[in-house]
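Worked example 3 (structure in, sequence out).
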């Protein structure tokens, strides 16, 4: 019987929809819970494990207690061996580190871990690069290329590897950011080390790439185009990013670089809005959503903007989405489409297709949006 490890960080991603940009630290977790955040990582673990159901009788899943993996694996009928018991359903980084170490001691062929960049950092600090691992994305901030692009893709890649298919093995970067600085719209990234992962471009995400300073003029031109064509009494939801930030700067309005802002009639309604805020606005007013893809990854939804949830997008509608991008971002994708992953298959299917993308003042190109 083949053995794989599974460790779930159940609090990963909880800060996303409530606009907290992560859940590192007990005080931030408590704040997220008070704002109505609920765990999402366990459900994403299930989506990955469902891709392994064809091997259910051949697999033993070595995991941690309760929502750290046991519940998800057993709910799908997998045989499990629990080697670490967490004391609290709301776990911390120490639980991840201890759980990972216990799982490695069992001699698993592959360790799947569910979380974000902080979780990857914990796994690295516990195991180094001696254990083959694969990340299942569930966090708010996912810069590290040790993650598959979606939970489903993680399951598919794991299936290939377990079945003995030829899959390349490579050491990839573990990158994390300073969350406190992130909440102040400052991006401070640090390389912590490397994890050994199975790699296939069809399944893995790229490392997030920063926006070059030389693009500032293009961003300003795009922003002026958006501002000059804004309609009265329409609520504009401005997604995170340097290209969209230029819109707020052109209007001389307060903004959050890494959050979501809401404006109407060129006045600020809400800075750094949560999912609940956005649902309130789109229920009251006709709305448009302005998005820019993540550099190097091409995600429009599902990376760092979980506040713009499937419920928000569904209410706004596909025809009211405005995409802005510098040409260099598009060139950097090398022909790959923009991606969306809201977690709702119906909404993701709705978003597929070709869109007009603003790339300068009065300049547009047609570009494809796809789903994983």
């Amino acid at each position: 019987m083949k053995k794989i490890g599974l460790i779930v960080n159940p609090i990963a991603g909880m800060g996303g929809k409530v606009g907290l940009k992560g859940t590192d630290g007990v005080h931030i977790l408590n704040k997220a819970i008070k704002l109505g955040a609920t765990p999402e990582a366990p459900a994403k673990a299930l989506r990955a494990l469902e891709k392994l159901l064809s091997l259910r009788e051949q697999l033993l899943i070595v995991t941690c207690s309760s929502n750290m993996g046991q519940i998800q694996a057993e709910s799908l009928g997998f045989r499990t061996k629990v080697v670490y018991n967490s004391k609290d359903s709301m776990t911390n980084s120490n639980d991840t580190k201890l759980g990972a170490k216990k799982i490695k001691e069992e001699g698993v062929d592959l360790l799947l871990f569910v979380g974000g960049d902080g979780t990857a950092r914990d796994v690295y600090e516990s195991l180094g690069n001696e254990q083959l691992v694969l990340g299942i994305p569930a966090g708010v901030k996912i810069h590290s290329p040790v993650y598959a692009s979606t939970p489903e893709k993680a399951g598919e890649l794991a299936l290939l590897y377990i079945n003995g298919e030829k899959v390349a093995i490579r050491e990839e970067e573990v990158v994390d950011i300073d969350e406190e600085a992130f909440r102040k719209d400052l991006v401070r990234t640090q390389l912590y080390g490397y994890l050994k992962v199975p790699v296939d471009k069809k399944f893995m995400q790229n490392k997030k790439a920063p926006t070059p300073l030389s693009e500032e003029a293009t961003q300003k031109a795009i922003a002026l185009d958006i501002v000059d064509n804004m309609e009265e009494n329409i609520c504009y939801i401005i997604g995170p990013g340097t290209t969209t930030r230029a819109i707020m700067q052109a209007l001389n309005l307060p903004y959050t670089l890494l959050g979501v802002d809401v404006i109407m009639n060129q006045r600020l309604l809400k800075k750094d809005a949560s999912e609940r805020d956005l649902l309130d606005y789109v229920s009251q007013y006709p709305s448009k959503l302005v998005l820019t893809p993540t550099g190097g990854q091409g995600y429009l939804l599902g990376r760092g903007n979980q506040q713009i949830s499937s419920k928000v997008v569904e209410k706004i509608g596909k025809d009211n989405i405005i995409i802005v991008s510098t040409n260099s971002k598009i060139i950097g994708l090398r022909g790959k489409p923009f991606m969306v992953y809201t977690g709702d298959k119906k909404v993701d299917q709705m978003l597929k297709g070709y869109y007009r993308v603003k790339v300068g003042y009065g300049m547009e190109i047609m570009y494809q949006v796809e789903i994983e």
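Notes: The mean pLDDT is 88. The longest strand covers residues 189-199.
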